[in-house]
Structures are given as structure tokens and as C-alpha cells.
Amino acid sequence: MSKARDLFVSLGVLLAGRGRAKLPERERIVPEKPPRPGWEATAVVLFGLAALSALAFPFLYAFGRHLSHETQWLGLSLGLAFVLAGAGLVVAGRQLIVTEEIEEDYPPEEHPEEQELLAQAIEETGDSLVSRRLFVLSLAGAVGAIGVAAVTPLVSLGPVFGISKFFSTPWRRGRRLVDESGRPWKASDIEEEDFYTAFPEGADEEELGSPVVLVRLPQSSFDLPPELAHYPANGIVAYSKICTHAGCAISLYRAPLFQPDEPKPALVCPCHYSTFNPADGGSVQFGPAGRKLPMLPLEIDRRGYLRAAGNFDEAVGPSWWGVRNRKPSPA
Amino acid sequence: MIRKTLKVLDQRTGDAPLLRKIARYVFPDHWSFLLGEVALYCFVVLVLTGTYLALFYTDSTRQITYHGPYKPLDGQKVSEAYNSVLNLSTTVRVGLLMRQTHHWAADVFVAAIFLHLVRVFFTGAYRKPRELTYLIGLTVLFVSLLEGYLGYSLVDDLLSGMGLAIGYGVAISIPFIGGNLGELIWHGPFPGTDVFFSRMYIAHVFLIPGLIGMLLVAHLGLVAMKHHTQFKQGPRETERKIVGVPTFPGQAPRSVGLMFVTTGVLFLLGGLAQINPIWLWGPYHTYLSTNGAQPDWYLGWLIGALRLMPGFDVVIGNYTLVPNPFWGGALFPLVVLAFLVSWPYVERRFITHDYGYHNLLDRPRDAPLRTGIGVGVFIWVALIFVAGSVDRVNVFFDLSYTATIDVMRVAVWVVPIVCGAIAYRVCVELAQGDEAERRRKRAEHRAKAMTELESS
Fold first, then answer.
1. Best label site of A27, A257, B78, B397, fewest CB within 10 Å?
2. String of DSSP letters for B118-161
3. pTM of the entire structure?
4. Which residue is closest to B307 within chain A, CA to CA?
5. pLDDT for residue A173
């Protein structure tokens, strides 16, 4: 076995070293190191395996179209090729190549002479100016003004100064509530302990002001402030589905399974677990939200369909500096 | 062959003296110096795999109906962006491998930079004359967080859309200018218009990678100009003399080997370890979200901070001075950044009064106060990071979420102080132990010399 290995190595060395010209003897730069055929063979084998693994990649690409776990095989072949080649190089670096340790002086801390010469040259250049200060000031003014001009186009990136759009929602009195596919919700569809998403009929569903959550609560559980007392319709309440904390959709409804000792119903945002009370107008029960959930007034038409009775009582979406300035208005 | 190549090159460029100098550049040998290299090689993998992904990506939020090979989503309303990434993952051969490798590389990239920062911090490598190198490195770290966030936001799957909504919430929560800034970036109120994705795209594939690339060049250039720092491993290493292996032979094969191994491991992860299976998350719409959502690991600390904040906005009359997400999403990372940026200057001004030039690294025990404060701050961030995923832990252990958060709200202040104090104490004891050992050796040496003198 070791004979075969020696043969293999010496053959490789012979072939690789063929025809190299003899050089006149000179002092070595890199110190001499005795050969380590074992490690050399290891490196060669690693490189060989890396080549095989790498060649498997185009092979798999060409013939593996119907292979199950194709991505895994492709990743395995390419990854192994790199790892094996890298291992071969590390073996070479650690075991085959001379690891001489050398010393060197750190560069000097500073170059006082050069600094002085540079400073002198700059100062002398300015000598011919009558008023250096005026010159520098005017130049700085020009550069600053050009800077302002250069960033001006950035204002076009968005509506910067008008934020009235933040207050507009598609809701207005009489607009029907529909589901995701546009089918109108009937009051009789809404059941207790469940949770529904609704949109204004015909509006853009992606707008932050659009989606609302609908839940039905037992009449006895309501604890609404007087100004919101007329907002529910027949025990059904609607709140903006967009959390007032950071704008995620409120997609969790905690409905107590056993009324006496479980926590009261709550609307919860799964991003940071802001928890809102649907029975008292959407106050924050827990979590980081700093503002109550906007509530939408509802009414039920003669055919039993749910309609908005107006707009939200508060601005929709995450808070910004002007969020409490005014009430939302229809677009 | 070798001689001929060198001759041709030298005649055209005159590079031989420079190459010889580079070949003799000294690299001190310590495993922890490889962390930065791993980050560099991840960046190379990111640029290459990312370019491949860009050949298939559509930066549009126009809604279309999905009809592709992934049947569970058939007929769903999806954006063109999501559709293109889904097709890349399901119909383009090697596409999924490239996407997953890119994602893994991003995670490892930030992890390597972070560990590199930890090494630099606790060994005092940032001291004069390397403050600039350190500041550039910090910039790379924080810019990379933004780069990673934009990268996974481009996919427009449910998770990334939730992430963008939170990003918008944080952006508009900035006092005085937030609302306007949000409109500027998103081209209107969230979810913005179609051009918002074009903006993210050009930022993710051109502006920020270009910036990171330039910063890396500056970082490495500064390292080379002032040479590496080194640990005192023997009598030969001093503040004036650097000891190590030359670039060639010695460092080069190992470093290239490390590049290959890093690349290989990333491809193995990309092939074998599923990451961000966007077909399971589904498309994003503003009215959708999911429970148990977790961002990529390097944004976990921000989610944790957002979750731990008690719920209040600072309001004066009708004016909302500080909306809540500002604390956790903007102020918290700024405080951490400010600590890291100012630390070298704070340390030398108030703690060590040491304005000297340093090429030798400290061990953590050599600077107990730095180690104590550093441990405190890192544990503080780590605990807040844990709070970001506490909802998953709770499901696992069947604990109450609200109770855990209440406990964490206290723990994130108490535990770091305790840990920092312990770390400080341990360092002092270790340093004293070292000193005693040194004294013992010296005394033994002297005694031996005395006996030898007497016997002769």
C-alpha cells in the first residue's frame, strides 16, 4: 500500500518536474523543508476528490432533471468540491509549505518631517492671496450652495410636505362591508368567538385604511365610552385591521373558551403582541401600542347587509407626529 | 513559465518590487484573526450569487394571478416580484440553490462581522492608531443590517411584507420628520407605490453593496498600512516588532483555503438546509399577517426591543412627539451604535487616560473594566434579542407570554449589570493570579541561581 503510494507520489513529482531547467546555485530565499510524502498524497487526494465532486455538478445539471432532491444533490456536489479543495489548500499551507516565521518593524507612528513639508507647501500656496479668509469663505459658500442644489432633486422622491393622505380612508357612510373576494357581509354571517376581515366595497384592499376586523360580542360585555356607544350594530363591532403600533395586520383573536376565568376577548397583533380590547372601543390591554385601535361605526341595512355608518374615530395605521391632529376623512 | 509571466507583467507594470513587498508582508497567526476573512469571503459569495438572482428578479408589485408548478398557491393574487422569486425557486434549475446560498451567506456574513467586532472590542484592537479602521468596520456592520433587510424585503412574501410594515412604522415614528420621511421613502403612505420596490432594488443590488465594497477596501487598506495587531505570544512580539508568517508562502494558501471552505460550507447549507421557504409563507397583502413570524437573526434584537417597550406614545396636546416604535426600532440601535462608536474615546478619556500607540493586543483580563462594561452591554443586547423570539419559546415551554415579557422587562436591566460585575471580578482575579505566578517564577529563578552560585 505504502509502496503504491510512494510510486504514485514520485510519478507525480517526476511528471510535474519534467524538463525544468537547472539553475545556477544561489542562496535560498525560502528555507529548505524535508518532503512529507504522506501529507502531499493527502493534498493530492483531496484535490482529486474536489475535482470529482465539482464535475458531478454539471453532470447532475445535465442528467438530474427528474432526480428527487435535485437542489440537495447540486448543493452537496458544489459545496463538497469547495470544501475539499479548501481542505487540500489548508493541508498544503500547514504541512507542505515552509511555515517560516519572520519579523518586521511596524511602520513609524508618524512622519513629522513629511507633515511639516506638506503644511508648508499648502501655506505658501496661499501666500499670494490678498484676503485668504474671503477667498475660503466664498469657495465654501459656492460648494455648500452646489451641495444644496445637488440634493434638491431628492424631494421629488415622494410627497414630502403634504401628509393629508395619511388621514384619508376609503370609508364613508353607507359603504358596504365585503370580504376578500368582494362578497358583501351580512350581519347574520358574523358569529361570536370568531373573527372576520372586511373591506369597503369596491375599494383598494391594499390601502392601510381599507381592512377592518369584525367580531360579535355579547351585549352584556360592552363597556364603550359615550361617544362610541352607537358604533356597534347589533353586537357587531368593526376595528381597523392595521395595528397602531407598527402597521402589521391584526390577525389573532383571543376568544375565551371558558368565560368565568379566562381573559376577556382581545384582538392581538402577531408582530409585537399589542393587545386591544374590542369591548371598550379598542383600548390597549398589553404590548407596545401607544394608541387605541380606530373603530368604525356600523349599521345594518334593511336587507341585513353590514354598512359603514361613517369613518373611523381615529387616524388609521402606525403613529407619526401628526396622527392625533385630525379625524380621518373619505378619500 | 513562472519566470516568463513575471517578466511580462513586470515589463508592462513594473510590479515586481511591489509584489515582493506584498509577499513578505507579515501576518500574525491567531485563529480569531480569521473571522474578518470569513466575512470578506461571504461578501464575495453574496456578490456572485446575488448577481445570479438579479438575472431572474422582477422589481414590481403589480398584482397578477399565480399559475405555476406550486399548486397550493394556484390562482392566488401575488405580486410580480413574489412571482419571479417563486419561479426562480421552483422552475429555474440551480435557482433555489443559489437563492438559499445567498440567504445563508448573508446570515453568516453578519455573524462573522459581529464575532469579529467582539474580538476587536475585547482585545482593545480599536486603540490608536486603528480608530478609523474600527469605525469603518462598524459602518460596514450597520449598513449590512440594512442591506440584509432590503434583500429579504424584495421577495414580497408574507414575512417580508410584515417586516416592511414594521420598518415603515419605525420610519414614521421618528420625531418631527417621521411622517414626511416615510412618504419620501415609500412614495406615499404604506404600502407605497410601485417605484418603492425599484428603489429597494437599486439600493440592494447597487448602492449599498457598492458602499460596502468601498468600505471593505478602505478597511483592509488601513489594516495593511498600519499592519496587523498581534498578541504577545513570546518575547519577540513587541510594540515595535511584528512577528508572523509572510503572505507568500505561508498565509496565502491558508487564506485561499479558508475562502474555499467558507464558500463550500455556504453551498452545503444552501443545498441541504432549507431557509426562508417563501412558498409556505405565501404572498403579502397589507391585511395579512401570521403568528410566530421571525426575521433573520441579525434583526432579532430590534424586534425584541419593539416588543419589550411598554405601550405609550409621548404626546403634547395633539402633537405626538414620540410614537412608540421609535424607542425600540430607532433609538435602541442608535444607542448601541453610539456606545460602540464612542467607546475608544470614552475609554481613553475617562478610564485608562492612555493616549499611546498600541500594536500589542490586550487579553480580556488585562483590561477588567473594559471587559466588564463590554460584557454588560453585549448581554443587554443579547437579552433583548432573546425577547424577540420569546413567543416561540413560550409555545415550546407552555409559558404565559405576558408574564415572560413582564419578567424580561426587568431582567434586561438587572442581568447585564450582574454579569458585567462578575466578568470584571473574574478578570481582576485572573490578572492577580497571573501576577502571583510571575512573581513565583521570578523568585524560583532567583533561588535556583543562588543555590548554583553557592554550590560552585
1. A27
2. HHHHHTTTTSTT-HHHHHHHHHHHHHHHHHHHHHHHTT-BHHHH
3. 0.93
4. A272
5. 94
